[in-house]
Design goal:
The structure is a single chain. This protein is an all-alpha fold. It has a domain of 125 residues. Helices cover 48% and strands 2% of the residues.
């Protein structure tokens, strides 16, 4: 009929004019084949390349990630936390500008909190990396089981009574907060 034919012509005219109503067919897919993610044997239904196709292109950044991860997961020797590089580095951040004295707890606590935040980011990037760092053999994160992977690493490196720098940092942060509360006001008025 003529009404159906006119409707079909109107639809053809509206295509590409940004009417705001788009269908799935309007978007270009990365590939028409279903991709296979080898990390967990899960067949993707997204019609997009797997996470393993994205790789870091900077070997220097990969090496820095590996060094930072080693520093985060380094075990202390003979039960001394000062034997790890990261704890030694944090002690140098506690010194004043001239290097003659240590910072007061109210000045050092924010610095230590920032260091703990950065260490957590390094740990997450090394354990559940968004892209593959093939230069240092860090695989991209699996599609399934991310929480179990993160919890296993957390138990080894981030909990109290672990022989890693993070356990020492948390206890040092608690101690420094307690000192900060008992120290009294920073400014005294006469």
């Amino acid at each position: 009929s003529d009404a159906d034919q006119d409707e079909g012509e109107d639809e053809d005219e509206d295509e590409g004019q940004g009417s705001g109503y788009r269908t799935r067919d309007d978007y270009t897919d990365w590939s028409r084949e279903e991709s296979h993610d080898d990390s967990d044997n899960y067949l993707s239904t997204m019609n997009s390349p797997g996470r393993n196709t994205i790789a870091s292109a900077e070997p220097a950044a990969d090496l820095v990630l590996r060094l930072a991860y080693y520093m985060v997961t380094e075990d202390s020797k003979d039960g001394r936390s000062s034997s790890t590089m990261l704890v030694f580095f944090s002690a140098s951040g506690n010194s004043g500008t001239d290097g003659e004295e240590y910072l007061r707890p109210h000045r050092f606590t924010p610095i230590l909190s920032r260091l703990i935040y950065c260490v957590r980011l390094v740990l997450i990037e090394a354990i559940l990396s968004q892209c593959e760092h093939s230069y240092v053999n860090v695989a991209s994160r699996p599609r399934n089981g991310q929480l179990q992977t993160l919890n296993a690493a957390r138990r080894e490196t981030m909990c109290d009574e672990t022989m890693s720098p993070m356990g020492e940092f948390f206890s040092l942060l608690d101690y420094s907060r307690a000192l900060r509360r008992s120290e009294g006001p920073v400014y005294h008025f006469y």
